[in-house]
Amino acid sequence: MKRLVLIVLLLASPALAVQPDEILDDPALEARARDLSTGLRCLVCRNESIDESNAELARDLRILLRERLVAGDTDQEAVDFIVARYGEYVLLKPTTSGANILLWLAGPAMLLIAGAVGFAFVSKRARSQKADTADRLTKEEQDRLRQILED
Questions:
Q1: Does residue 8 belong to any structural domain of this protein?
Q2: pLDDT for the residue numbered 28
Q3: Which domain holds residue 111?
Q4: pTM, full prediction
Q5: CA distances from 39 to 23, 57, 88, 102 (A)
Q6: What angle do CA 66, 69, 74 make, to 5 degrees?
Q7: Mean pLDDT over residues 36-43, rounded?
């Protein structure tokens, strides 16, 4: 039973698409490359990191990332190089600076605007219904209604 659970757990783990010929000889550089590649998006597979994707473009990005690390780039320099080439879309977690701040704030702003419009609509409708009801009843009907409600 324990073996079956172990096999299922191993099969359920994410399959990494890194090919043996891509792996660097230096374990420290390879660990950095793996860490960085989990934060970069495969441009073909959408919401998959280049570390998980089997696409050719993802392979090219993994190799490019490793080349930059071997060349002596810091982690940030290597990621900046790829972002400069492919755009900020390549980041799985986009930055919250520059023009992106508008995108980050647009969702909450739209929610607040929708709430205000909905509240205004409902309150205006309630007022108009109240005014319509009062206009439709004659004076005698209003008096009779008050008498019934008081009883």
A1: no
A2: 87
A3: 100-150
A4: 0.58
A5: 18, 15, 12, 22
A6: 145
A7: 89
